[in-house]
Amino acid sequence: MAADPERVAESSNCESEAASSETAQASVSRRRMLSATAVGSATALAGCTKLLSGSSDALRVCVWSGNYADRFEDAVVPKYEEEFDADIQLQRGWDEILADIRSAPDDNPPYDVTVTEGNFYYYGRQEELFHEIREENVPNLEEVIDYYTEFRTTEYGMPVDGAPCTIVHREDADVQPDSWSDFSSEAVQNSAGVGVDTGFWWYPLYAAAVGMDERELGDEMHEPDLHEAVLETFRDWPVSGWASSGEDVWQQFDNGVIDAAQWYYEQVAYDIDDYDGLTHTMPEETTGYLNHWCVVDGTDKRDQAEEFINFLMDAETQTAWSEEMPTLFCNENTEYAEDLAEDLPSNSEEAANIAFPDWEVLAEHDDELSDEFTAIQTDS
């Protein structure tokens, strides 16, 4: 995943030049004239993306950094390279992904294929950073769970994977939350406190909205008149841990700073047993992210890029992938490893219990909500 591409991310050591939301929402060419300052920033950013493997002729694929990249490299790359007799040059990215694409020459983008969550996917489309996906080259789209093709356009990216937010908590504490409304309960208020993500500020706010239950599954976030009520609910959470990575969350538990936390299923389910005294509970209704995989405008490997995305969408690929990574998958025929199917959706009805952010609505209020979230963090 990645932090807000329109703002300087607190979760990364690599700072990116942030365009204004007004600019991002306009349909503009992705190749903009860069000032000397911007060029300098782009040069600095070039060092933020780490090459993992591959040759100069390889398909350049950008994935989220951290254990996502580690598991992707183990589970997906060898399978594709063997099946298609092709090389993958895997690159780790975070908040700099869109900035790197913006600053690259027209005919030499930094990646051929990139992962995007909802925020990046929205702003990247507005700035024409991605090729349209030719559906005849991604036949596995026919096997994608309907819900994932209906709530967000697939014109420029294919839904492949993602993760709901889960609640991490201590096994032996008085706090045993199983819904986001519990973060407002007396038991949680009297605990050491809770931890939340800071880079992806919209997920804690959506979780707060889901817990309010005044509108259908987080729709409070899609009604500007209710934004202050959502922010007030979030202010009332006893947030004592502000995390920019999973490592931060585990350390905050270890230091006794928090007794519960909002975090992401794919970073928790296979790792939780490594931490004594901790468990996690998946709320019946939650929020979460969905990755759309995109072909970067300007690549000379458009056909291969679409072939690779279609490979990611394949049920067999996703079944094997789930053995290494406990992520949500979009193919209706995917067979989840272990007990993942108990928590992760396998059909549209189950997927509809996850409030995925609607950036078509949210973008207009992006700066305002982000500033309010930052103010709450600063004042805590």
TrEMBL record:
<feature type="compositionally biased region" description="Low complexity">
    <location>
        <begin position="10"/>
        <end position="27"/>
    </location>
</feature>
<dbReference type="Pfam" id="PF13416">
    <property type="entry name" value="SBP_bac_8"/>
</dbReference>
<dbReference type="InterPro" id="IPR006059">
    <property type="entry name" value="SBP"/>
</dbReference>
<protein>
    <submittedName>
        <fullName>Spermidine/putrescine transport system substrate-binding protein</fullName>
    </submittedName>
</protein>
<feature type="region of interest" description="Disordered">
    <location>
        <begin position="1"/>
        <end position="27"/>
    </location>
</feature>
<keyword id="KW-0732">Signal</keyword>
<dbReference type="InterPro" id="IPR006311">
    <property type="entry name" value="TAT_signal"/>
</dbReference>
